[in-house]
């Protein structure tokens, strides 16, 4: 599960977990969100879309359960 950078004005990077069918999207302005029950085909299409933001709004937003991803704090940091 390596992060994949997208050429997008709203999405910085995405990470997909095949086993859990979860998609983590890091937005440039609003933070990180975890989407559950996402098929691999949706992730693949997001990476190939002419506009990742448009694809996200049409095919992911509101279609899958979503929750904010909280960053884990490192000890001493």
TrEMBL record:
It holds the Pfam family KTSC. InterPro entries: KTSC_dom. Residues 7-64 form the KTSC domain. The lineage of its organism: Bacteria, Pseudomonadati, Pseudomonadota, Alphaproteobacteria, Sphingomonadales. This is KTSC domain-containing protein.
């Amino acid at each position: 599960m390596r992060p994949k950078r997208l050429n997008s004005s709203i999405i910085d990077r995405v990470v997909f977990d095949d086993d859990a069918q979860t998609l983590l999207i890091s937005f440039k302005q609003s933070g990180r969100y975890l989407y559950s029950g996402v098929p691999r085909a949706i992730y693949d299409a997001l990476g190939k879309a002419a506009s990742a933001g448009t694809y996200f709004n049409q095919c992911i937003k509101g279609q899958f359960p979503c929750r904010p991803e909280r960053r884990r704090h490192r000890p001493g940091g």
